[in-house]
Amino acid sequence: KMDDDDDIPQLSSHTLAALQEFYLEQQQREGMKTSQGFNQYSIGSIEEDWQLSQFWYSDETALCLAKEAVLAAGKGGRIACVSAPSVYQKLKEQDGEDFSVCILEYDRRFSVYGEEFIFYDYNHPLDLPENLLPHSFDIVIADPPYLSEECLQKTAETIKYLTKGKILLCTGAVMEEQAAKHLGVKMCKFIPKHSRNLANEFRCYVNYASGLD
Questions:
Q1: What is the DSSP string of 31-75?
Q2: One GO molecular function term (predicted)?
């Protein structure tokens, strides 16, 4: 019988990552060859990696959050996306808008975005490049990778270091008290959706008058 799944060799996560990287590079080369209009920022160019606890937002949610960030940052504003790559990718699609953006992300596949990519591990919340000055972003959008107080608390250190004041946090509804405690943010009416349904109810939290209510 050939249809037993047990016989399929499982790749180690390291091999898998290397393979993904290879495919990504290949896709990019192909993309650059076949069409100048290839959208390198589209979600499809980098797939979710569940081993890194990555879950992309639905297109509508990512766009809504990106637009909110642009409005909140203001003209010429600086936006930081902490572990929120799908919002970053939507921001990159907003051509001609007057703002700049950085992505702080553990997944090194996002280094394809060049200087805007900053490797980030929430376990070392202030291990950031020297040129990333404190309180240099008009708004920080963050989506801590895990629903734990420890993860939220450490990510909060990063957020507070980066932001001039405005915070847009996306995390589980169960984190409402901890979000208020560590970041002084309140839940919005807007309900973020993911491209695949998550088991945990997800919400947005802000500390300013946003368009998400």
A1: HHHH-TT--TTSGGGS---GGGT--PBPHHHHHHHHHHHHHHH-T
A2: protein-lysine N-methyltransferase activity
- Which of 100, 159, 162 minimizes the C-alpha distance to 171? 159
Q: Which amino acid is at 45?
A: S
The answer to whether residues 164 and 138 touch, using CB atoms and an 8 Å cutoff, is yes
Contact (CB, 8 A) for 152 and 179: yes
Residues 105, 85: Cα–Cα separation, whole Å = 7
Give dist(CA 64, CA 68) in Å, integer. 6
CA atoms within 13 Å, Cβ hemisphere of 41: 19
Residue-wise pLDDT for 142-173, tens only, equals 999 888 999 999 999 999 999 999 999 999 99
**Domains along the chain with CATH numbers:** 50-206 (3.40.50.150)
> Which of 159-189 are b and which e, b meaning 16 or more Cβ less than 10 Å from the residue's Cβ?
bbbbbeebbbbbbbeebeebbeebbebbbbe
Q: Where would I find the H helices in 59-201?
A: 59-73, 85-93, 149-162, 176-183
CA distance 88 to 54: 14
Which tens digit of pLDDT belongs to each residue from 22-58? 666 666 655 544 444 444 444 444 554 544 445 678 8
Distance of alpha carbon 25 from the chain centroid: 21
